[in-house]
Amino acid sequence: MLCVLISIPHQDEAHKLFMQSTLVNGLGELPDDTDVRVPVCTWNSCAYTLSAAEQLVRLFGDGRFESLSSRQKQCLLALVQHASMTSRLYNPRNIKQHCLTLLAAVFCPGEFEKQPCVLEMKALCLLTGLIFSLPLLNDESVDYLSIRPDCQEHVIWVTFAVCVVQALLSLNVEEMNEETTQTDVDCLVGDVLMQLRPELSRCAFSVAGMHKQLETRVSSFLRCAALLFHFLTGIPLPDESTGPLSVETLLQYVGLPPLATLLRDINPTCGTEMACLIQE
Questions:
Q1: CA-to-CA distance for 204 and 181, rounded, in angstroms?
Q2: Cβ 145 vs Cβ 87: under 8 Å
Q3: Which pLDDT band, with edges at 50, 70 and 90, does 2 fall under?
Q4: Cβ burial, residue 154 (10 Å; 0-12/13-18/19+)
Q5: Phi and psi (nearest 5°) for 201?
Q6: 3-state SS of the chain?
Q7: Closest by alpha carbon to 37, among 19, 14, 18?
């Protein structure tokens, strides 16, 4: 269960000052405690910084999180804790509205004005926003981050499904000409892709190469999600002694089933609830 208790009653103003800085530096606005965008700016700042840290590790640290210095880890921990305080320091009604807006963008596409399409969404921003706002939908009295295990699973599942769909919609067919033996997971990737992009049925490409591209594209999101959950829960990251964490290891760490199971669930031909939502 995700649960971080933050008991620092004399530092609320410091938290608010940081949150205001995300509004000032992010949107170029003047400080305003009543601005309803402050929580979203804070969550997005958290997501952006986690993404930047993941890229730093991947580019300069051999892909291993252990290459992060103690100071970097402490900064990331403090940032995640700041972001988790929004539900305590800002109007619960506004937090609830932000949460419903995020959910509507995924489950009610086209129902409201100015909704982003799936390719315009930031999957990691969606994850941080839901993780930090969803607890208030059930209980406005919480002064710490507490989300039920089933809700946690649904949040990461929904955001990962968005990430998979984005990856499949933007795959480069020209890079999928690698001839290798196909596995069952390769075929599942191909089935989902044909449902999302039927025009590719006239193209020749390697399904195995497509699977490889998909794993490359979703691994960054999973690595950021793993960092987020690590700093929220304190649960150690998986062992990296043999190299960077694989997609399957990351899925297991954040509480998701293997990729093959996930692909079956989002395949429109399977008739699952998630598949129907994605098909719409």
A1: 16
A2: yes
A3: very low
A4: middle
A5: -65, -20
A6: CEEECCCCHHHHHHHHHHHHHHHHHHHCCCCCCCCCCHHHHHHHHHHHHHHHHHHHHHHHCCCCHHHCCHHHHHHHHHHHHHHHCHHHHCCHHHHHHHHHHHHHHHHCCCCCCCCCCHHHCCHHHHHHHHHHHCHHHHCCCCCCEEECHHHHHHHHHHHHHHHHHHHHHCCCHHHCCCCCCCCHHHHHHHHHHHHHCHHHHHCCCCHHHHHHHHHHHHHHHHHHHHHHHHHHHCCCCCCCCCCCCCHHHHHHHCCCCCHHHHHHHHCHHHCCHHHHHHHC
A7: 19
Contact 266, 164 (CB under 8 A): yes
Q: Determine contact, residues 134/99, Cβ cutoff 8 Å.
A: yes
Q: Which two tokens stand for residue 1?
A: 């269960």
Q: How many beta carbons lie within 10 A of that of residue 171, not counting itself?
A: 20
% of the chain beyond a pLDDT of 70: 68
Taking residue 50's Cβ as centre, other Cβ atoms within 10 Å add up to 24
Mean pLDDT for 83-111 is: 81
d(CA 15, CA 114): 30
In order of 86, 107, 164, 166, 242, the CA distances from 101 in angstroms are 16, 10, 21, 19, 41
pTM of this prediction exceeds 0.70:
yes
Q: Residue 183 has which token pair?
A: 């596995």
- Measured CA to CA, the distance from residue 38 to residue 31 in angstroms comes to 9
pLDDT value, residue 74: 92
- What's the mean per-residue pLDDT of the chain? 76
